[in-house]
Write a structure and sequence with these properties.
95 residues, mainly alpha, 5 helices, globular
Length: 95
C-alpha cells in the first residue's frame, strides 16, 4: 500500500507511530497495511460505544490501563502482527 493512498489522518498517525518505533524498537517495523486495517477497526469499535463508556476506556488507557489493548487483541481475529495491529487500533479508537 502506497502512503499516498491513505487517508491523511491515518497516514499522519502511522508516520508518528513509525517514527516512535524506529527509536524505541529499532528491530521491529510497523506494518502500514496492518496499522491501517487496525486503525479502521479501532474507529468502528469506538463508534459502537456510548460516550460514557468510550471516555472511561480512553481515560483508563491514558493512565496505563489495558482495557483498550485487550479490545485490540480481541479485534485481531486474523492474528496479524500484534504490535502493528495494537498501535493502529489504539490510534483509530482515540482519533
Amino acid at each position: 500500500m502506497k502512503p499516498t493512498n491513505l487517508n491523511p489522518t491515518i497516514l499522519k498517525s502511522f508516520k508518528a507511530t513509525e517514527s516512535f518505533y524506529k527509536h524505541q524498537y529499532p528491530n521491529h517495523k510497523i506494518s502500514q497495511e496492518v496499522f491501517t486495517k487496525a486503525f479502521i477497526e479501532g474507529m468502528k469499535e469506538a463508534a459502537k460505544m456510548t460516550p460514557e463508556k468510550f471516555n472511561t476506556i480512553k481515560e483508563e488507557y491514558i493512565i496505563g490501563g489495558k482495557k483498550l489493548e485487550n479490545l485490540a487483541s480481541k479485534a485481531n481475529k486474523n492474528k496479524l502482527d500484534k504490535r502493528s495491529f495494537t498501535r493502529g487500533f489504539v490510534s483509530g479508537f482515540t482519533a
